[in-house]
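User: Please predict the structure of the protein below. I'd like the answer in structure-token form so I can feed it into my own downstream comparison script.

Assistant: Understood. Taking the following sequence of 99 residues as input:
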Amino acid sequence: MSSQGTRTELPSYLTHPFDIGKYLSAKVVKVLPKTVVMDISNKHHGDVLGQVRWFPNWRQYCYKIGDVWYSASCLRDLAGFLERSTYMQKNYKKKGDSK
């Protein structure tokens, strides 16, 4: 960092894409004075799905798709909802089922 606090280069561990799960990877695409911007991509096809950026109003990194921002707690809530919905789909009888 320079004396003004501006980043000039990335730490070595951020210079290559890194895994963030079974299906996703992250890659730093922009270095800002105090934060970084990361593309989140599908590992299989390499398609960019969104970005992780610093959201100053919430003072935290968030996942951004288009003009919509998601905090970590919002994404946890959504993941829980998806898991419960899948469980219900697999374990509750549908109308008209004879089983």
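That's the full token string. The chain has one helix and six strands.
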